[in-house]
Amino acid sequence: MLPSDDAILLSLVNTYLRDGEASLGEVAEKLGAKEGEIEARLASFGYEFSPEANAFRPAK
After folding, report:
1. How far apart are CA 28 and CA 25, in angstroms?
2. Of 29, 18, 24, 26, which Cα lies nearest the Cα of 43?
3. Residue 21: predicted pLDDT
4. How far is it, in rounded angstroms, from Cα 50 to Cα 22?
5. Distance separating alpha carbons of residues 49 and 37, to the nearest angstrom
6. Shortest CA distance to 36 belongs to which of 53, 24, 23?
7. Bridge-partner residues for 56, per DSSP?
8. pLDDT on residue 26
9. What tens-digit pLDDT sequence spans the chain (60 residues)?
10. Strand positions, DSSP E, 1-60
11. Exposed site from 10, 13, 21, 50, fewest CB < 10 Å?
C-alpha cells in the first residue's frame, strides 16, 4: 500500500532505490503497487524517474 502523502512516497521510494533495490519495478512490488502507479503519482507531484540516477528527480 502506498503512502497517501506524496512527499513521503517520494522519500520512501528514493530511499529503497538508493539503499540497494535494483529497480523501480522491484520497489513497486515491495510496496504492492504497479510501477506506473508510482510514476504517475510522483509525476503529479512534479517528479520523474531518472534511470541514470536510479531515483526520482524534479521534472524538467
Report:
1. 5
2. 24
3. 67
4. 14
5. 12
6. 24
7. 49
8. 95
9. 899 999 999 999 999 999 976 899 999 999 999 999 999 999 999 999 999 999 999 998
10. 47-50, 55-58
11. 50
Question: Residue 29 is placed in which grid cell?
Answer: 512490488
> How many other CB atoms sit within 10 Å of the CB of residue 47?
20
Structural contact between residues 1 and 32, judged by C-beta atoms closer than 8 angstroms? yes
Q: How far apart are CA 8 and CA 5, in angstroms?
A: 5
Residue in the structure block whose three cell numbers are 504517475: 40
The span from the CA of 54 to the CA of 56, in Å, is 7
Instruction: Select the CATH number that applies to the domain covering 6-58 from these four: 2.60.40, 1.10.150, 1.10.540, 1.10.10.
Output: 1.10.10
